[in-house]
Amino acid sequence: MKKHIPNLITLGNLLAGTIAVFYAVLGQLEFAALFVIIGIVLDFFDGFAARILKVQGELGKQLDSMADMVTSGVVPGIVLFQLILRGSSNSSLASVFTWQTFEFLPFIGLLVTLGSAYRLANFNIDTRQSTSFIGLPTPANTLLIVSLPLIISFSSAGFYVDLVQNPYVLIGISILCTYLLNAEIPLFALKFKNFGWADNNYKFIFLLLSVVLLIVLKFVAIPLVILLYVLISVWKNLQKAE
């Protein structure tokens, strides 16, 4: 019976992601973000449960990728589609593009869905990613994207709200996220073999700065935390190369 527990948790991730799809399609992006976060939490615990119960297997690995494809692949693409669609009513953008081109601009957001699918498939066959990551993990990428409607709805800082409503910025985010998902950039995993400073200084720095950013900036901090994760990983790689 215990071998099915991680798979049931994974199916919970898939269910949360499927519900998020419905909310995203309906344009209720805050609810979509909520169910994505639930799915990502379940995604963490299915692997944790499999390791604790010692029931890791190929079925769980494949099921996990399928669930992630919905929660961290389909949903962020639809969220970006909706955000670009809303921002595309900007008159300055409409004056640059013809009406036909303007109508199809929101589909650029779905590049993230394609990039996520490629990353998930590649992750399953890439033996280099057992203890770290190559490219941005799909859950981290998804958290960045679903934080955007939360910033719009709950942030009091007008500058940040205007920024993430700008269709040019959203298109740039779509392209950048698609690239980062599959970039050949080694990124550290938050796994601790020990808690010594020498081996984990970059992880402690990241966690400390992340907590400070989240306390001060709240939802606005989420994209900054993901950016910080990439920058500290690059800094670590440069140190290692020296």
Your description of this structure?
36% of the residues are buried. A two-stranded antiparallel sheet has the order 1-2. It has one domain (2-188): Four Helix Bundle (Hemerythrin (Met), subunit A). The longest helix has 30 residues, at 58-87. It contains eleven helices and two strands; from the N terminus they run H-H-H-H-H-H-E-H-H-H-E-H-H. By secondary structure, the protein is mostly helical.
Helix/strand layout:
Layout: H1 5-25, H2 29-53, H3 58-87, H4 91-96, H5 99-104, H6 111-125, E1 133-134, H7 138-154, H8 158-165, H9 167-182, E2 186-187, H10 197-217, H11 221-241
Antiparallel strand pairs: 1-2
Helix pairs in contact: 1-2, 1-3, 2-3, 2-7, 3-6, 3-7, 3-9, 6-9, 7-8, 7-11, 10-11
How many extended strands?
2
Q: What share of residues are in beta strands? A: under 5%
* Span of the ends, CA to CA: 50 Å
Shape: globular
Q: Name the poorly predicted regions.
A: none
**How much helicity do the residues have?**
over 70%
Strand order of the largest sheet: 1-2
- How many helices in DSSP terms? 11
Précis, in short:
This protein is mostly helical and 242 residues long. The protein has helices at 5-25, 29-53, 58-87, 91-96, 99-104, 111-125, 138-154, 158-165, 167-182, 197-217, 221-241, and strands at residues 133-134, 186-187. It has one domain (2-188): Four Helix Bundle (Hemerythrin (Met), subunit A) (Up-down Bundle).
Attribute tags:
242 residues; Four Helix Bundle (Hemerythrin (Met), subunit A); 11 helices
